Amino acid sequence: MTEKLLSDLRIGEQGIIKHFIDDFIALKLMEMGCLPGEQVILERLAPMGDPIAISVSGYSLSLRKSEAAKVVIQQ
Amino acid sequence: MGLFSSQEKENYLRIAMAGNPNSGKSTLFNLLTGLRQKTGNFPGVTVDLHVGYTRLSNGKKVEIIDLPGTYSLFPKAADEQVTAEVLCNPAHSNHPQLTVLVADSSNLKRSLYLCSQLIDTGMPVILVLNMIDVAVKKSIAINQEKLSQLLGIPVIGVNSLEGSGIAALKQLIESYQQRNDHPLIPANEISAHNWLGLQQIMSCLTPYDAFVTFINRRFLKDAAEQKIMEDFFAQQQVNEVQLQTNEAVIRFKKITGVIEQCVAYKQRNSYELTHKIDNIITHKIWGFVIFLAILFTIFQFIFSFSAIPMEWIEMGFANFSDWVAHALPQGILNDVITGGILAGLSGVVVFIPQIAFLFAFIAILEDSGYMARVSFIMDRLMRRFGLNGKSIIPLISGAACAVPAIMGARTISNNKERLITILVTPLMSCSARLPVYTLLIALVVPNKNVGGVINLQGVVLMALYLIGFLAAIGAALVLKYLIKSREQSYFIMELPIYRMPQAKQVGMVIYDKVKVFLLEAGKIIIAISVILWLMASFAPGNRMQEIEQKYASIGNTISEQERSNKMAAEKLEASYAGIAGKLIEPAIAPLGFDWKIGISLVTSFAAREVFVGTMATIYSVGDQADERSIRQKMKEELNPTTLQPVYTTAVAFSLMLFYAFAMQCMSTIAVVYRETKGYKWPLVQFLFMTAMAWLSSFTAFHLLS
Question: Minimal CA–CA distance to B48: which of B399, B401, B360, B363?
Answer without folding.
Answer: B401
